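S1.2 Input.
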Amino acid sequence: MPRYGMVIDETKCVGCHACRVACHNQNGLEEKEAYNHLEEREYGTFPNYTREFVPVQCQHCDNAPCVKVCPTGASHKRDDGVVLVDKNKCIGCKYCIAACPYNVRIIKKEGYIEKCRFCIEFVEKGEKPACMTTCMTGVRMFGDLDDPNSEISRYIIKHKLKQYKAELNTRPRIYYNKA
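S1.3 Output.
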C-alpha cells in the first residue's frame, strides 16, 4: 500500500494561482471557496525587497487533529494516509475546522465540510492531482513516500526540506523546499 505525500518547492512558485484555479475547477467549488491558498510573505525594504509565495493545502497529517476531534468519523484517514471527509457522515459541527491549524477546510452551503483530497480519484487511475497539472514551474511533486525509488522519496532524501508548522506535531505529509 502506498503512503502518499507531496513536496512543494517554494523556490519555484511565482504566485500565479494556477494551482488554485485547477483545484477550483476540478472540484466545482463556489467562487469564494478554496481547498488551497497562497501565503504571500514580504521581506526587507526597497531596494532590497524579497517576496515569496507559499502554497498551502491540507497537509494530510499522520497525526491529524481533524480526525481526532470528529464525533462521527466523517473526517478519517485512509490506509494510504490520505485524509478525507465523508459528507454523508458529516454533521457540520466545525470541530475539524477549529482543530486544523492550516486553515484549509471549508463548510459547504449544504452544511458539510470539504477539503483537499489529493485528487485521490485521479491518483488511483495513475494521474496527478489537479493542482499539479497546470503549474508552469513544477512547484509540486507527488508520490509514494514509502517507495525509496520514487522521485519524491529521492528528492526528500537529497534536499533539506521542512514541514509546515512542524512544531505542532501533526506530522504533515507535505514537505516544503523553503525559499
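S1.4 Remarks. The chain has one domain: 4-177.
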